[in-house]
Amino acid sequence: ISVGGVSNLMAQAQGTADSSASSINLRADADSGMDAMGIQNLQMKVDSDSDLSSTSSLIGSANGESTANVATADIDFDATGVDGISMNVGGISNVASSAGVNGDTSASSVGSLAKTTGDLDSTGISEGHLFSSSDSDTSGIATISSVLAAESNAGAGKAFGDFDADGISDLNIGSGGLLDLAGQAQVTAEVSASSVSGDAKASSGDDDLLGVANSSEASTIAGLTNVSADGASDGTILGTAFGDFSTSAESTGARATANAAQSLTGIDSANIDFGGAGSISAIAQDSNFVEASSVSGNASATASVDAIGLNSGDIHIASDAVLTSSVSVDSAADASTV
Length: 338
What we know:
Blueprint: E1 2-3, E2 7-23, E3 28-46, E4 50-66, E5 71-89, E6 93-109, E7 114-132, E8 136-152, E9 157-175, E10 179-195, E11 200-204, E12 219-231, E13 235-251, E14 256-274, E15 278-294, E16 299-317, E17 321-337
Parallel strand pairs: 1-3, 2-4, 3-5, 4-6, 5-7, 6-8, 7-9, 8-10, 9-11, 9-12, 10-13, 11-14, 12-14, 13-15, 14-16, 15-17
């Protein structure tokens, strides 16, 4: 796209996916899956000012219910605001992109296995080259909200989920004036499994959805990743990663196992060069509570968090500089048996 004057471009992708299955004697399997993309592989030249916005959002659910047989519920959602963009702007540049995923599941069975899985991904901006002759203001926001629940009476209850959010990744940005860049990622997830007479297992941060949550498979939340920013004047950089996780497993007659793992980074790998004053803020904040309880069986609970404010980079600021890196983690694991 080539524009000889002022440009205003808006892209929007919205989707809703709901599924349900119920049976008395047979299996009940409910699956919902969808991808949403606001902008992909855009090349654009604007001679004057440019205002670009992209919004991608997904809302959905899956509910499976069986009386005598297996019940499953699965969701697989991926929302991206911008994936691949190259812009050259002759004036002021404003780019705002957001991606949001909201997905819930419920699986319940009286006489057999109840299992639910969720794989949710959200990305604000990925793979970008943005250059403006004047001021530049760019933001990428990624959010996820999810509740996964499995409940069984006579069989096992299993709930496995993985949640990955990236505000902005792999971006090269240059500005002939002021430069403002903000990448924000936020995840809220609740995973629960319960059974009366069978095993209960809940896993959050389980990349392959097989019931193993550890640091190698952790849910990832990142504000800014692999960013190069070159501003001729003053500049502001903000990268934030927020997580709020609750994971629980409860059984009356058998084992209860709950695991949750997250990796958060405010800013990861940033090369920054400002010709004036600069302000850089990197924030990582996580709440991770894991609980497992059993009346007659063993109970195990594991909580793992890796959080970094600012991780690696090459920073040059010609004038006054303010650098802030902050990490806040509230994590606990509790296992109890009677």
